[in-house]
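Weekly modeling sync, notes
Attendees: S.R. (lead), two postdocs, one rotation student

Agenda item 3: backlog of single-chain predictions. S.R. asked that every request posted to the team notebook include the full sequence so nobody has to chase files. The rotation student volunteered to paste the first one in as an example of the format we agreed on. Action items at the bottom.

Example entry:
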Amino acid sequence: MSRQIARLPREIRARAAMALGRRFPAVFAPRLGAPVFLAGCARSGTTLLAELLGLHPRIARWSEANRVWDPGWYPWRPGLTDRAPLELDPESFVDAWWRENAGRLDEIRAVFGAYRWLGGDELFLNKSPIHAHRLTQLVEAFPGARFLHLVRDGRAVVRSHGRKLLAQGKLREWPAEARERMLAHPDELHRLLARFWARTIEAVGERERLLGLAEAGRWHELRYEDLCARPAETLAEVHEFLGLEPRPGDAGRVEIRSQNRKWREAFGPDLLAELEAEMLPVLKAYDYEPTARHATAG
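Predicted structure, as returned to the notebook:
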C-alpha cells in the first residue's frame, strides 16, 4: 500500500500526510526518525540538490512545506503585516515563527512522519531557505537531525534573488515603504541582498560551531559550483554522509548547468564593487575570487 502511495504525485501524498499527521500525531510523530534538513540562502541551488537527492529510493523529499511549518504566514495574503520578511529582518521573522508554532511541534513531526511512512522511505528530507536562520530551533525540535548546507557565489545569489523578488511580485509581502523604495531603486535592493547573503552565511557558521554539528557528524557543507562541475562525485559525498549507497546515475537524470555567469552581465562595475565590498570576507572564505577591479581597489 505505501509503495502505491509513494508513486502518487507528491501533492496527493502530502495531503494524505497532513490529514493523518494532524489526526493521529501520537502515532505518526515517532515515525519521522532523524530527518535531514537542507539549508542555504535563497537561490543557492537547494532546489536542484533536493531534486537530485529525491531520486534516491530511500529518501522521502518534501521541499519547502511552508504550509506545514507556518500555516499562519503561508500562503501569504494581504493584511499580514505582523512580521517583517526574512530578507529585511531574519531574526525577527524566525522569532515570530517560533512564537506562533513552537506549540505545534508534535503536529509538524507527525505530518512529516506520515509522509515518510506513506512511502516506506528510510530518510525524510526537507529543504527551505528559512532553515539557515533557525538551526537552533531545529536542533531543539528534532533531536538527531542532520543538516546539509549549500553555499553559492553571493554575486549569483544576489542577481537571482533580486530578479525573483522583482519579477514575481514577492515584494508585495514587504512593508509599503520598503517595497516602494526597492522598486524605485533596484540597486538598493541588490545592496540589501548582498548584506543578507553575507549575514546568512556568517550566521550559519556561528550557529553550527555553537551547536557542534560538524563535530558530532551531523553537518555536511558543499558548494553549488562543485555540484555543477562534479555532480556525480559531489552527490556521492552527500550520499555517504547520509549513510546511503551511492547512485552515480542520478546525476545524469537532471539537467545540471551552472547559471553563475549571469551576474557578470547583470551588474555594472561600480555596483559590483559595492556588492563585493559588502560580501568580501565571506566570498574569500569560500574561495570566490572578487573581480580584478575590486581586488585592485582593495
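Discussion: group reviewed the output briefly. The domain at 2-271 is CATH 3.40.50.300 (Rossmann fold).
Action items: rotation student to repeat for the remaining queue; S.R. to check formatting next week.
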